[in-house]
Amino acid sequence: MVHSLHAVITIHGIPAHPLVVHAAVVLVPLGVLFAAAYALWPRRRWQTRTPAAVLAIAAALSVQLATMTGDQLQHRLHEDTALIHTHERYAGYLQAAMWVLAALVVVAWWALPHENPLPDKDHRSGVRAIAWPLTVLIPIASLAALGLVVMTGDAGARAVWGTSGRDSGSSAPGVASNAGPDV
What we know:
- By secondary structure, the protein is mainly α.
- The chain has one domain.
- Helix content is about 65%, strand content about 5%.
- It is built from four helices and four strands, in the order ββαααββα.
- The strands form two sheets. It has a two-stranded antiparallel sheet. Strands 3-4 form a two-stranded antiparallel sheet.
- β1 and β2 form a beta hairpin.
- The longest helix is centred in the C-terminal third of the chain and has 34 residues.
Protein backbone atom coordinates (compact mmCIF):
# COMPACT_ATOMS: atom_id res chain seq x y z
CA MET A 1 0.00 0.00 0.00
CA VAL A 2 1.42 3.42 -0.94
CA HIS A 3 0.94 6.24 1.56
CA SER A 4 1.01 9.91 0.69
CA LEU A 5 4.06 11.77 2.01
CA HIS A 6 1.69 14.44 3.25
CA ALA A 7 -0.74 12.18 5.11
CA VAL A 8 -1.57 13.70 8.47
CA ILE A 9 -0.75 11.61 11.51
CA THR A 10 -3.68 11.65 13.93
CA ILE A 11 -4.20 10.48 17.47
CA HIS A 12 -7.83 9.53 18.11
CA GLY A 13 -8.84 11.71 15.17
CA ILE A 14 -6.90 14.79 16.32
CA PRO A 15 -3.98 15.90 14.14
CA ALA A 16 -0.74 15.01 15.95
CA HIS A 17 0.83 18.46 15.55
CA PRO A 18 -1.09 20.29 18.31
CA LEU A 19 -0.47 17.34 20.63
CA VAL A 20 3.24 16.89 19.80
CA VAL A 21 3.86 20.61 20.16
CA HIS A 22 3.14 20.33 23.86
CA ALA A 23 6.03 17.91 24.28
CA ALA A 24 8.35 20.51 22.76
CA VAL A 25 6.85 23.25 24.92
CA VAL A 26 7.73 21.23 28.03
CA LEU A 27 10.98 19.56 26.95
CA VAL A 28 12.73 22.58 25.41
CA PRO A 29 12.65 24.71 28.59
CA LEU A 30 13.62 21.69 30.71
CA GLY A 31 16.46 20.82 28.35
CA VAL A 32 17.64 24.43 28.29
CA LEU A 33 17.53 24.67 32.09
CA PHE A 34 19.54 21.50 32.62
CA ALA A 35 22.01 22.31 29.83
CA ALA A 36 22.73 25.76 31.26
CA ALA A 37 23.01 24.37 34.80
CA TYR A 38 25.38 21.68 33.56
CA ALA A 39 27.62 24.21 31.85
CA LEU A 40 27.54 26.90 34.54
CA TRP A 41 27.47 24.92 37.80
CA PRO A 42 30.71 22.89 37.93
CA ARG A 43 30.13 21.53 41.45
CA ARG A 44 26.92 19.83 40.30
CA ARG A 45 28.05 18.58 36.90
CA TRP A 46 28.12 15.03 38.16
CA GLN A 47 24.37 15.35 38.88
CA THR A 48 23.28 17.36 35.85
CA ARG A 49 25.34 15.83 33.04
CA THR A 50 23.16 12.84 32.15
CA PRO A 51 19.79 14.60 32.62
CA ALA A 52 21.08 17.52 30.52
CA ALA A 53 22.10 15.20 27.68
CA VAL A 54 18.90 13.15 27.79
CA LEU A 55 16.65 16.21 27.95
CA ALA A 56 18.52 18.06 25.19
CA ILE A 57 18.21 15.08 22.87
CA ALA A 58 14.55 14.50 23.82
CA ALA A 59 13.79 18.19 23.25
CA ALA A 60 15.51 18.16 19.85
CA LEU A 61 13.54 15.05 18.87
CA SER A 62 10.26 16.60 20.03
CA VAL A 63 10.95 19.75 17.99
CA GLN A 64 11.83 17.57 14.99
CA LEU A 65 8.57 15.64 15.35
CA ALA A 66 6.57 18.85 15.85
CA THR A 67 8.11 20.29 12.68
CA MET A 68 7.34 17.16 10.67
CA THR A 69 3.74 16.94 11.86
CA GLY A 70 3.32 20.68 11.30
CA ASP A 71 4.46 20.33 7.70
CA GLN A 72 2.00 17.48 7.21
CA LEU A 73 -0.83 19.50 8.69
CA GLN A 74 -0.02 22.57 6.58
CA HIS A 75 -0.04 20.51 3.37
CA ARG A 76 -3.30 18.82 4.36
CA LEU A 77 -5.09 22.07 5.19
CA HIS A 78 -3.62 23.92 2.20
CA GLU A 79 -3.03 26.92 4.46
CA ASP A 80 -0.52 29.45 3.22
CA THR A 81 -0.70 32.64 5.28
CA ALA A 82 1.95 35.07 6.46
CA LEU A 83 1.32 33.97 10.06
CA ILE A 84 1.94 30.34 9.18
CA HIS A 85 5.11 31.28 7.30
CA THR A 86 6.34 33.18 10.38
CA HIS A 87 5.57 30.19 12.59
CA GLU A 88 7.28 27.85 10.14
CA ARG A 89 10.38 30.08 9.94
CA TYR A 90 10.76 30.25 13.73
CA ALA A 91 10.18 26.49 13.95
CA GLY A 92 13.04 25.93 11.50
CA TYR A 93 15.34 28.15 13.57
CA LEU A 94 14.26 26.33 16.74
CA GLN A 95 14.89 22.98 15.11
CA ALA A 96 18.45 24.01 14.20
CA ALA A 97 19.08 25.58 17.63
CA MET A 98 17.93 22.44 19.45
CA TRP A 99 20.12 20.11 17.39
CA VAL A 100 23.09 22.43 17.97
CA LEU A 101 22.35 22.52 21.71
CA ALA A 102 21.94 18.73 21.84
CA ALA A 103 25.26 18.26 20.03
CA LEU A 104 27.02 20.70 22.36
CA VAL A 105 25.62 18.96 25.45
CA VAL A 106 26.59 15.52 24.17
CA VAL A 107 30.15 16.73 23.49
CA ALA A 108 30.18 18.40 26.92
CA TRP A 109 28.97 15.18 28.55
CA TRP A 110 32.21 13.65 27.37
CA ALA A 111 34.52 16.68 27.59
CA LEU A 112 33.60 18.74 30.66
CA PRO A 113 35.34 17.89 33.91
CA HIS A 114 33.24 16.70 36.81
CA GLU A 115 33.93 15.25 40.20
CA ASN A 116 31.48 12.94 41.89
CA PRO A 117 31.84 13.27 45.69
CA LEU A 118 30.59 9.74 46.24
CA PRO A 119 33.35 7.19 46.87
CA ASP A 120 34.50 5.06 43.94
CA LYS A 121 32.26 6.88 41.49
CA ASP A 122 32.79 8.55 38.14
CA HIS A 123 35.44 11.31 38.12
CA ARG A 124 36.62 12.98 34.94
CA SER A 125 39.32 15.56 34.40
CA GLY A 126 37.78 16.62 31.09
CA VAL A 127 39.31 17.97 27.92
CA ARG A 128 40.67 21.40 28.84
CA ALA A 129 40.98 22.67 25.26
CA ILE A 130 37.22 22.58 24.67
CA ALA A 131 35.87 22.90 28.22
CA TRP A 132 35.83 26.70 28.33
CA PRO A 133 34.27 27.16 24.87
CA LEU A 134 31.55 24.67 25.81
CA THR A 135 30.74 26.51 29.04
CA VAL A 136 30.23 29.67 26.97
CA LEU A 137 28.45 28.16 23.95
CA ILE A 138 25.94 26.02 25.86
CA PRO A 139 24.32 28.93 27.74
CA ILE A 140 24.23 31.00 24.54
CA ALA A 141 22.58 28.15 22.62
CA SER A 142 20.22 27.62 25.58
CA LEU A 143 19.09 31.24 25.53
CA ALA A 144 18.62 31.11 21.77
CA ALA A 145 16.51 27.94 22.02
CA LEU A 146 14.43 29.37 24.86
CA GLY A 147 13.72 32.56 22.93
CA LEU A 148 12.91 30.61 19.79
CA VAL A 149 10.47 28.26 21.52
CA VAL A 150 8.59 31.31 22.83
CA MET A 151 8.57 33.04 19.43
CA THR A 152 7.57 29.82 17.63
CA GLY A 153 4.74 29.16 20.05
CA ASP A 154 3.53 32.75 19.87
CA ALA A 155 3.56 32.69 16.07
CA GLY A 156 1.70 29.36 16.06
CA ALA A 157 -0.92 30.66 18.48
CA ARG A 158 -1.41 33.77 16.35
CA ALA A 159 -1.77 31.61 13.23
CA VAL A 160 -4.50 29.54 14.90
CA TRP A 161 -6.24 32.01 17.19
CA GLY A 162 -5.58 35.32 15.44
CA THR A 163 -3.59 38.35 16.46
CA SER A 164 -6.12 40.34 18.45
CA GLY A 165 -5.96 38.52 21.78
CA ARG A 166 -8.52 36.84 23.99
CA ASP A 167 -10.65 39.90 24.71
CA SER A 168 -11.43 40.56 21.05
CA GLY A 169 -14.44 38.27 20.96
CA SER A 170 -12.90 36.28 18.13
CA SER A 171 -12.38 32.58 18.36
CA ALA A 172 -10.53 29.90 16.47
CA PRO A 173 -12.20 28.51 13.38
CA GLY A 174 -14.81 25.99 14.43
CA VAL A 175 -14.60 26.91 18.13
CA ALA A 176 -17.55 28.59 19.81
CA SER A 177 -16.68 31.53 22.03
CA ASN A 178 -17.60 31.05 25.68
CA ALA A 179 -16.37 34.47 26.69
CA GLY A 180 -18.69 36.08 29.18
CA PRO A 181 -18.69 39.60 30.49
CA ASP A 182 -15.53 40.74 32.25
CA VAL A 183 -15.96 40.72 36.00
